[in-house]
Amino acid sequence: MFQLGGLVVTLVNGLLGLILWRRLRAAFPRHGALVNAACAAALLLLGHPALLFAVASFSGLRASQRYLPDALSMIALGAQVGLLLYGLLLGVAAVARAVVRALRRARPATDRRAAAGAQAAPGAPAADVAGSADTAAASTARAAGDAQAGGAPDIGAARPEAVDEVRRRLVVGATWALPAAAVAVSMGGVLASRQRPVVVKIALPVRRELTSLHGVTIAQLSDVHVGSFMDAERLDELRDAINAVRADIHVITGDLLDHHVSQLELSTRLLRGLRPARGQLFFCMGNHEYIAARSASIPAIMKGLEEAGAQVLVDEAREVRLGGDRLWMGAIDYPSRARPGEPARRPTVDGLARALGQMQDDGAPRILLSHHPGTFRAARELPFDLMLSGHTHGGQISLGRIGDYALTPMLPAGLYHNGLYEHRGRRLHVNAGAGGWLPVRINCPPEITLVELVPA
Predict the structure, then answer these.
(1) Distance from C-alpha of 226 to C-alpha of 177, rounded to nearest angstrom
(2) How far apart are CA 198 and CA 390, in angstroms?
(3) What is the DSSP string of 277-344?
(4) Which of 60-64, 230-234, 272-276, 293-297 bottoms out in mean pLDDT, i.e. has the lowest?
(5) Which of 153, 241, 347, 354 has the smallest CB count inside 10 Å?
(6) What is the DSSP letter of 177?
(7) Which residues lie below 8 Å from residue 331, measured CB to CB, with a gap of 6+?
(8) Which neighbouring-strand residues pair with 329?
């Protein structure tokens, strides 16, 4: 399946490269050799990740990340996104041209019908019709006279129009400016993926009498993906950023590792560097923890995380005492089937029932961690206050949000992609993540979520 996706992207790369090459050759006919060399070099640079993906699935992609310098891989993947953005812009332009042509074709037909109606209108003066006929006859006679006299026919209308240099310059400029803009935006997205995470603040109302909870803060980190363009230096930046918000409790909502148990060493190094003010660090399993466990085992991954100070919760809840009051912290397992040799996983509904069943209905706030935000569909009628999720990376390329629908070309249409959602008093916040599938983020920066408990 993944190899098929790589093959499709490779074919799309070839098609878009051919379109770009032909346009550049037409725009710059005197520089054909330079255009050929530039297009070949560009396709070689950005095409190799998709080609390796098509040939060897994730193994090929991981090999390119392992053996090529990070800077080269990031530039290649950024250029890949730029080419796909160029294709998207070409598609939008083609649709716009088709609509304009359809409107133009419809307009003359409307004008002809209007003219026919005017000619057939009752009460039109006969003199007007006669005058029109006389004018047509005179024109015909003049044309015949010119032909009998041996005069050359008037072919002025058939002469080629003078080249509009302004229009030609605009066309040539658009030929190179459109792909250049797409690449510039994607390369800006590469730089944005390495920026310091933004802190997104949300408020969680709690009962006024729970005074020890007022002002308590919870910092959420998600989807770090250690090993995927996430080296020790970048991890130190994330550690410093989350420690700087001075939250009382830290939570990580899955996908700390990316794909191999060898990434556990850097992952635990990050965990040991976290400094929650109240000393509590909670963790829920993401799908990539299970992917990494294929090279070891799930108990080995969980043991490493717990030895680094994380409380790994799987369909369970813990009481968190803060002064004279408390809150409940629970977590749901990643909703997928277990692979052969893995422990069986509970269905999401059963996991929710088990975790919420361990939380007393005593008015204390109940918080659920769930890597996959789709869990909110099953949970939103159940008694809890806030769910913290990740998994989607916010789409990494964000075009905004309309209501509950996030607009991003990286994810299928649907709910719960990024930000805060609410359903009958139940809240869900989807963290945009700190890492990514690709080292590109456009209008979707890395995120740390800061939840503050406030009096209702």
Answers:
(1) 36
(2) 15
(3) TT-EEEEE--HHHHHHHTTS-HHHHHHHHHHTT-EEESSEEEEEEETTEEEEEEEE---SPPPTTSPP
(4) 60-64
(5) 153
(6) H
(7) 282, 283, 284, 285, 313, 314, 315, 316, 317, 355, 368, 369, 370
(8) 318, 367
Taken as a whole, the chain contains a residue count of 456
Task: Give the tokens for residue 238.
Answer: 């994330």
Contact present, 43 and 12 (Cβ < 8 Å): no
Looking at the DSSP assignment, which residues form a beta bridge with residue 317? 330
Percentage helix, strand, coil for the chain under 3-state DSSP, each rounded to 5: 50, 15, 30
pLDDT of amino acid 138: 46
Which regions of 93-197 does DSSP assign to beta strands (E)?
A: none
In this prediction, residue 150 has a pLDDT band, given cuts at 50, 70 and 90, of very low
Residue 15: Cβ within 10 Å count:
11
The pTM for the full model equals: 0.80
Q: What is the dihedral of CA 165, 167, 171, 173, to 10 degrees?
A: 70
Tell me which amino acid residue 393 is: H
Instruction: Name residue 447's amino acid.
Output: E
**Cα gap 354→238, rounded to integer Å:** 33
Contacts of 8 (CB under 8 A, 6+ apart): none
φ and ψ of 138, to 5 deg: -65, -40
> What does the DSSP assignment read for 26-65?
HH-GGGHHHHHHHHHHHHHHHHHHHHHHHHHHHHHHHHHH
- Do residues 352 and 332 touch, judged by C-beta distance below 8 A? yes
Q: How far is CA 292 from CA 184, 227, 256, 309, 325, in A?
A: 34, 11, 10, 19, 38
Residue partners of 70: CB distance under 8 A and separation at least 6: 229, 231
pLDDT of amino acid 129: 40
Residues 81 and 440: their CA atoms lie apart, in Å, by 8
* Dist CA 193 CA 446 (whole Å): 7
Neighbours of 272 (CB within 10 A): 14
Closest CA to 17 of 67, 69, 82: 82
Do 153 and 147 touch, CB atoms closer than 8 A?
yes
Vertex 376: Cα angle to 372 and 380 (nearest 5): 165
Give the span between the Cα atoms of 256 and 269, in whole angstroms. 12
* Alpha carbon distance 83, 446 (integer Å): 23
pLDDT band at 79 (very low <50, low <70, confident <90, very high): confident
Say if CB 392 and CB 376 are below 8 A apart.
Answer: no
Strand pairing of 386-389 and 426-430?
parallel
